[in-house]
UniProtKB/TrEMBL annotation:
The protein's name: Thioredoxin reductase (NADPH)
Single GO MF annotation: oxidoreductase activity
InterPro entries listed in its UniProt record: Bdr, FAD/NAD-bd_sf, Ferredoxin-NADP_redctase_2
Keyword Metal-binding on entry: no
Keywords annotated in UniProt: Flavoprotein, Oxidoreductase
PANTHER family the UniProt entry points to: THIOREDOXIN REDUCTASE 1-RELATED-RELATED
Pfam families associated with the record: Pyr_redox_3
Length: 327
């Protein structure tokens, strides 16, 4: 493949990257998917007990049915589904291979990875946003007791746990660790639990806070973290609490440095929206396309699997019909 010029190289082996691969194959295009981690790496790193907000049919790609035990599938069911999609048709995907750069070569792009070099006429970037957490930038954030990736509640049994945030990840972590016997304190910048929290979970967390089972500091933020304590800035002053672990569910962001390195223009405001044509998904770099949640910049709640899987069809249709659109 080093000597073969591909029609398209897809960066990212998540659900949308796989959807792009399926569409490329359907269009008869030569392609390869490059994924720096395992298959659907971001989903693999989700909390072990996570239940999706979307129903299973909205997570389907390539017309392959997704059957789950309940209407809303779990993380293990999603991993099984996307593995079956990737393996049964023989998707051309290279795992544990990281793209280092994408360089114009006058007739497409040269793509250098951690393992080899490729040439491709077009490149699709479907890298998501789960690899780079939004940091608190406070003293002690780098201590071993702090994590931005909550996985399993058993680890926190009988411990004093501070959970930062009030959206789905934070609420799930707070409720699950509480039910494993942790003493849970939530630190919430806003004045309420997030409105996007799953509707079947929101009453649960609100009731646990109201009855005092989970302590919550609203309009507050973590000020510093030490080995055995945390300091919380509240409307009534700074509160110091004994603490064993901090789950900083502060969200994530796309790899903006990589997008800029490739040459994709980003908006100057804090949202950092990448430039692309919504009809074709082509960026300001001719022949480079965006797909999936990476399109939303810092607005990471705009694109999901269910509404961005259509990006794959737009991209591959445009590649095979280059003269159908202008940018």
């Amino acid at each position: 493949m080093q000597n073969e010029k591909l029609d398209v190289l897809i960066i990212g082996g998540g659900p949308i990257g796989l959807a792009c691969a399926l569409e490329a194959r359907a269009e008869g295009l030569s392609y390869v998917v490059i994924e720096k981690g395992c298959l659907v790496n971001s989903l693999y790193r989700y909390p072990l007990n996570m239940t999706f907000f979307s129903t299973s049919e909205k997570l389907e790609i390539g017309g392959v049915p997704f059957v789950s035990n309940n209407a809303k599938p779990t993380r293990p069911e999603a991993l099984e589904y996307y593995r079956r999609v990737a393996q049964s048709p023989g998707i051309n995907i290279h795992l544990f291979e990281e793209v280092h750069n994408v360089i114009p070569n006058g007739n497409g792009y040269t793509i250098n990875t951690s393992k080899q070099t490729y040439t491709a006429a077009q490149v699709v970037i479907a890298t998501g946003f789960y690899d780079i957490p939004n940091l608190l930038n406070i003293p002690g954030e780098d201590l071993p007791k702090v994590t931005h990736y909550y996985r399993d509640p058993h680890f926190y049994a009988s411990q004093k746990v501070v959970v930062i945030g009030a959206n789905n990840s934070s609420v799930d972590a707070a409720l699950e660790t509480y039910r494993k016997g942790a003493q849970v304190t939530m630190v919430i910048r806003e004045g309420e639990i997030g409105r996007r929290v799953k509707y079947w979970v929101k009453p649960d967390i609100e009731n646990r806070i109201a009855e005092g089972s989970i302590q919550a500091y609203f309009h507050s933020q973590l000020e510093s973290i030490s080995e055995h304590h945390v300091k919380i800035k509240t409307p009534n002053g700074v509160v110091e609490l004994e603490n064993d672990f901090v789950v900083a569910a502060t969200g994530y962001q796309p790899n903006f440095a990589f997008l800029e390195k490739v040459g994709i223009a980003l908006s100057a405001d804090e949202k950092r929206y990448p430039t692309y044509n919504p009809l074709t998904m082509e960026t300001n770099m001719p022949g480079i396309y965006l797909a999936g949640v990476v399109c939303g910049g810092m607005d990471t709640h705009v694109w999901f699997i269910e509404n961005s899987r259509e990006h794959a069809k737009k991209i591959m249709h445009h590649i095979t019909n280059k003269n159908s659109y202008t940018f």
